[in-house]
């Protein structure tokens, strides 16, 4: 990309045009024009903008359409080479990772779903244990049964009648 940028810079300087003039005429920011000339295409936002800037800048400098197409094709070929190189590197990294043994990959690794499942089962067992223990203690507790026909009940009834009679007669 630097070769393309040098070519554009040489054409601009030969024409005696400043970047500020081009910025005003094309409405492309100066920093993007400098990036094109220096080969720093990472600054330019998106490939579509880059191709458009290259096309407009080249036309502005008076480069014929055939050369513009050649410049853009050169850029696209460079991008394809970068992409292919990146994919090759990623493929090598993947192959290296794939060669590891299963033990190395999952060393001391326990999936979170198994932790949740084990915790849930443990809570259920603890709950059942506490429930059975409380039921066992409830069975040991004696329940009093009421007695029928007790003399104390009759005495309490007679005292209540006496008190009620006393209260009524005092008014």
Structure explained in plain terms:
With 171 residues, the protein is mainly α. Among the domains are: 2-86, 434 Repressor (Amino-terminal Domain) (Orthogonal Bundle), CATH 1.10.260.40; 109-140. It has eight helices and no strands. The longest helix has 34 residues, at 65-98. The radius of gyration is 47 Å and the shape is elongated.
Short synopsis of the structure:
InterPro entries: Bact_Cytoskel_RodZ, Cro/C1-type_HTH, Lambda_DNA-bd_dom_sf. The chain crosses the membrane at residues 114-132. With 171 residues, the protein is mainly alpha-helical.
Identify the CATH architecture of the domain at 2-86: Orthogonal Bundle
Superfamily (CATH H level) name of the domain at 2-86: lambda repressor-like DNA-binding domains
What's the story with the biggest beta sheet?
A: none
Which fold name fills CATH's third level, the topology of the domain at 2-86?
Answer: 434 Repressor (Amino-terminal Domain)
Share of β-strand residues: under 5%
SSE series: HHHHHHHH
Low-confidence stretches: none
User: What's the pLDDT, averaged over the residues?
Assistant: 76
Radius of gyration: 47 Å
User: Number of helical segments?
Assistant: 8
Distance between the termini: 119 Å
CA-based shape: elongated
Coiled coil: 68-98
GO molecular function, one term: DNA binding
Pfam family, one: HTH_25
Protein name: HTH cro/C1-type domain-containing protein
């Amino acid at each position: 990309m630097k070769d393309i940028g040098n070519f554009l810079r040489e054409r601009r300087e030969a024409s005696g045009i400043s970047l500020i003039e081009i910025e005003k005429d094309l409405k492309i920011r100066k920093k993007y024009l400098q990036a094109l000339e220096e080969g720093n295409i990472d600054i330019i936002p998106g490939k579509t903008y880059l191709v458009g800037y290259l096309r407009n800048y080249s036309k502005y400098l008076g480069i014929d359409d055939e050369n513009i197409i050649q410049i853009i094709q050169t850029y696209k070929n460079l991008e394809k080479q970068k992409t292919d190189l990146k994919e090759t590197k990623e493929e090598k990294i993947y192959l290296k990772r794939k060669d590891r043994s299963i033990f190395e990959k999952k060393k001391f690794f326990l999936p979170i779903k198994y932790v949740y499942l084990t915790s849930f089962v443990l809570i259920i067992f603890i709950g059942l244990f506490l429930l059975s223990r409380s039921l066992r203690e409830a069975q040991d507790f004696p329940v009093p049964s009421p007695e029928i026909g007790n003399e104390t009940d009759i005495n309490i009834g007679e005292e209540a009648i006496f008190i009620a009679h006393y209260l009524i007669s005092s008014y």
